[in-house]
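Please check these two lines:
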Amino acid sequence: MVTRIAIIRHGTTSWNKAGRLQGYSDIPLDEEGLEQARKLGLRLAGQPWDIVCSSHLIRARQTAAIIAEQLGIDTIWQDQRIGEAGGGLIEGTTETERLEKWGPDWKLQDLGMESNASVLARGMSFLDELVATEKGKQVLIVTHGSFIRQMLAHLLPHLPPPPPMKNTSITHLELTEGKWECPLFNCVEHLESAS
């Protein structure tokens, strides 16, 4: 029995476009982000998805709601464990601002950022619970770029480190007999087709 999971990054926000790190900051989708979510919903419509899960942050919840409506799914499972990695003091800043304020080694400083271990612990807690209770189901998870990259690096250690995730990209994961595979990665073909 194969459990299929599609991990989706939320649509674009004004902070994405400005290069501002969002983390826990609750920034809504912009107009383009809403349209990206609609296009992804149309792409997924007609496919046999059973469950839609979302981070508690509004940019993910908005994306999930648009997709769920296209799929005719009434209930969205919301969970803080799949929220974005916390950015601490760097939330709301650009790379240039970080360099100006903390210097080139800002990543090595204690600026209150959530550790990779913390992100993985909560992410794996969610995923293990999901796989145990929804075995054989097809599940959509709407979440965030850094969270997705950290999870994929952990689940698929035999693959190169994942590059930045595109907004509304879809990545398929399949769990068969305890082993994760990734048949589709960071795909945004729904954004490349004509409107």
